[in-house]
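Q: Hand in one record:
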Amino acid sequence: MAKVTRIYLARHGQTVTNREGRFCGHAETELTDLGVEQSRALAVRLERAPITACYTSDFTRAIRTAAVALGERGVAPRPDPDLRELHYGEWELERESAIRKRYPEQHRLMREEDPAWRPPAASPSPKSANARRALSAASSMRTRAGKCWSFPTAPLSTACFRPCSACPKATSSGST
């Protein structure tokens, strides 16, 4: 049977802008003390997982979360700008409460994850651009790691995506 590459996805720990209720996609922001504690909790959760590579966005909050979670494993986070969060355009670093008042319809669409949502002065299709960047990064990682992938579908559970019939957990949605 082919070797399976298991991929764990984690969001960075709480940041100053998260705590302040601000939109922060492409702006730098630091982890709070709680964010560092969340990163340590992730390290405990993953302590028995064999991790041989770690890819993060190139923002400090993601790199620091990964570094804390990796601990003394001898694996360094590999920053990749294709893994960045979306850019919020004019909403960047604004408080969500102010945005909700100024752009009530756009705020509602964003919270409902409606594909029609567009933050003012951002790229024409921020979610599809993010999806393209993430897929590009995933393709690059797959090339480096092998072809059999396992993606988390919930915190630390997995579903296998394999583009061949050798994997007993192969799914049609993963065979591209």
User: Anything to note?
Assistant: The CA atoms of residues 46 and 69 lie 8 Å apart. The beta strands are 5-6, 54-56, 77-79, 149-154, 157-161.
